[in-house]
Every structure is written in C-alpha cells, then in structure tokens.
Amino acid sequence: MASSDYDSSRPSDEEVTITRMLDKVLKRSDAVDKESLCILAGQRVWHIRLTLHFLADAGNMLDCACLAGMVALKHFRRPDVEVVGDDVTIHDPTERAPIPLAIHHTPFCFSFAFFSDPEINPVIDPSQLEQRLSAGLLSVALNAQRELCVLQKLGGVPLESDEVLKIINIAVQNAKDLNNLVDTRLKEDWASRNVEVR
Amino acid sequence: MASRVEILNQGGFRSDGRRQYELRDMSIDLSQQGQADGSAVVAHGLTQVLVSVFGPREAKMRSQTLHDRAVINVELNVAAFSASDRRRRTRGDKRILELATTIRSTFEPVVQTNLYPRSQIDIFVQVLQQDGGLLQACINATTLALINAGVPMLDFVCAVTGGVHSTSPLLDLTLLEENDIPNITVAVMPKSGKVTLVTMETRLHVDRFEEIFKIACDAGKVIHDEMKLSVRSRTSTLVNAMGSGPRVSGVDLVDGDGDDRMNEY
Q1: What pLDDT sits at residue B263?
Q2: Which of A47-61, A150-164, B137-151 is the most confident on average?
Q3: Are A156 and B189 within 8 A, CB to CB?
Q4: What Cα–Cα distance (Å) separates residue A164 from each residue in A17, A152, B16, B162, B210?
C-alpha cells in the first residue's frame, strides 16, 4: 500500500533492513521493561503485539516507523491485574483504570542520507527523492539521555570519523526536541481523556 | 545474568589472557579453493570464515544486470557446527540476510564495478567457526578474496570490533565479551582513513562511543598491515612458482631494433 515499488510477495532489501532495524530499536534496546509484564512467574505473562502499517512512503519510512512504534507503546494502557496467591483477576478497563507499560527509555531514530558528491552535506530525514539519489544512509537511534541505542551505517560512501561524530551530535540535539514534542502531545492527549465524574 | 568470568581484571588482562587493546591472532590463507577465482580463509582467534569470489563473469540472469556496472551478489552461509550449539539456520533467516546485505553494500562503493558492465561478481561467504566478531571476519575475508581474485578495488576494507567495559575500551571482542558489553563494528579504508561501515546494536553513551570509535578506526590500520603482508607473501610465492621473476642471465636485455617495443625472444 505504501508505494508502487513494494511487492507483497517477497520482502525487498529495504524491507529486511527496516524490519531488522525496528527489531533492534524497539525490542533489543530494552525500551519496554519486560519483567513488569509478568503476572505469575512461570505461568502467566502479558503478550504485547505491535503491528505497524505503512500507509504511504514519501521517504525515510524507518524514522517514522520507530517514532510511531515508540509513541504507541507509551500511549498504550493495559488492563489492571490483581494477583492474590495463585488467583489472577484481570479487571475490566471500565472497572479499574488501565495502567501504562513501564518504559525504561525512549529511543528515537534519525536517518541521514549522504551523496557521492563531497560538496553536498549529509541531509537529515531524507525525502523520497533524496533517498533514491543518495549514495548511503546512516541511521542512528538514541534517547534523550544521550545514549546511543543503535548505530547503522551499512556501506555507502565512506565518511571521515569526525563527520560521523558530528552527525551523532546533531542527532542528540534532535532527540531532545523530539522527546519534548512527544511528551507534550501525550500529556495533551491524556488530559483530554481524563473525565471528572462529579 | 552477570558473567561469572571477569571481562577485565585488576591486572589489565581479559578473559582470554589478552590486554585491553590487544587484537586476536589473525591467520590468513590465500590458497586456491575449488574453482573460485579468488578465495581467502581468515581467522580472528577462533572465528573462522571462508570466502570464495567468482567473477567478474557473465551474468546468469540477464534481467538482474545493470547496463553500466557489475552486480555484486553476496550469499552468506553459517555452518551448523560453527556455534557452540548445533543449529541449522534457514536461508531466509533475517539476521543472515542482513549480514549479506551489509557486506554487499560495504563493497559496492569500493569495488570498481563500472569497469565490468552487465557482469556479476559473486561472493560466497561460509562461516566455519563463530567466536565473536563475525561481521569483522567476513569483511576482512571478503577484501582478501576480492584482491586474490584480481577484482579492481579502490582500497582495502579493514574491519575491527570494539567494546566498552564500564569506562575501559576493549578491541577485538570474543563471543563472551560481545554478549556482555556494548560493542561496535567499524570498517575503514586505510589509505584515506575514512569509515565505510559502523554498526552498533547495544546501548552506549555518546561520550564512550566517541572514545571507542576513534580507537577502532586506528586499529583498522593495524589489520591493514597484516593483510598487506599476507597479500605480498602470497604474490611472491606465486611469482616464484611461475618462474616469472627477474631473469639473471649473461645476455643483456637490450632492445635490439631500438623501437622500445617488445622483442621476440
């Protein structure tokens, strides 16, 4: 659905890259605290399923997907559960307020496209045209606490080590701004859902 | 699960007896393997990888050729006996596909593909033993195999892994260390010092990353020296075997007809 280039029969190279990157950013970086999902040790646990639908491709689907995934996980509320001994009672969301997932940290992904002409600087968040014409991509996932979660530069035009560090610093600044934006929007949404019953 | 083995002890020694910045023993074997145009068996400590290169040759499938350059195909096969637990990986395993794509995109800008339009270069990577630093070994072996095959390249591509244990940077990690500490893989082109590949899949603070990144880039040059040495020695072996070394004879090698062109001997 995202674009005429994508064929649903076999995964293209880009699809494999995006899937692996999402797996690393959302799952392997331990963004969600998996231990808190346990209900009864060795018997019952919450299973979280995150599905991403790519509706339109205008370039840089990876960053968008990571952001969507993280915000969805932060936005999600699971039913409250009460454990007494071996008795597990799952409370309906209408009875007890559902509780959010325990999120350790929020990784955001930033992709930079760079070109074979050394005169052109790398660009952040490439559009469809820029992505097609680029000679390489550098994706960095990091959180607002200046911790790098995933860094991926898979071949492409070689860069100086200083350039790589400069790019990472730019990503650090953007991560802070994006984190503030996400927090603000989530707070607004939460405020609109809180209904006072008098 | 905390490791029972110390990654770096008080005396500055790691679990396998190496120092902090010491690289593992690197063994390179460039002898011919089967029908391949070029091949290399590279071992970093216990990690061993065999790479065979076929090409540039006529493309098998016309539909996949490019009109102005050669196509590079990489197939990666991880032997079932390579890891400590025997496990047969299917061809479509995402991790293996990702590694193959990584290797391909690393060598695409380095190999001079524009010299061979409508051809293909096949790289078959076989992982024989895994003990950490898999991507590093694959890239180093691929570089040597391509050189062995005589495929023109812009420069070597030398890869090395690095990690940070609390605040101490370490180089060339084994499997034990890789599973425990944040680690990166860096591939550099030694002539220009530029970085072609950086991957990191574990969380690491930006300042720590800067440190290990710079050190790993320098370590790439050390690997380069090792690789150059092996290529030179292999070439001199071949030259001596073919008997095409410099001739020492009583006859003066003078151009008889004075036109600076080849003389018929």
Answers
A1: 56
A2: B137-151
A3: no
A4: 20, 11, 32, 16, 10
Tell me the Cα Rg of chain B: 21
The residue of A154, A159, A163 whose CB has the most chain B CBs within 10 angstroms, and thus the best one to mutate to test that interface, is A154
| pTM (two decimals) | 0.87
Q: What is the mean pLDDT of chain A?
A: 87
Please report the ipTM that was assigned to this predicted complex. Answer: 0.83
Q: What is the 3-state secondary structure (H, E, C) of chain B?
A: CCCCCCCECCCCCECCCCCCCCCCCEEEECCCCCCCCEEEEEEECCEEEEEEEEEEEECCCHHHCCCCCCEEEEEEEECCCCCCCCCCCCCCCHHHHHHHHHHHHHHCCCECHHHCCCEEEEEEEEEEECCCCHHHHHHHHHHHHHHHHCCCECCCCEEEEEEEECCEEEECCCHHHHHHCCEEEEEEECCCCEEEEEEECCCEEHHHHHHHHHHHHHHHHHHHHHHHHHHHHHHHHHHHHHCCCCCCCCCCCCCCCCCCCCCCC
Cβ of A148 and B101 within 8 Å? no
The pLDDT-based confidence of A57 (bands split at 50, 70, 90) is confident
Does A135 lie at the interface with B, CB-CB under 8 angstroms?
yes
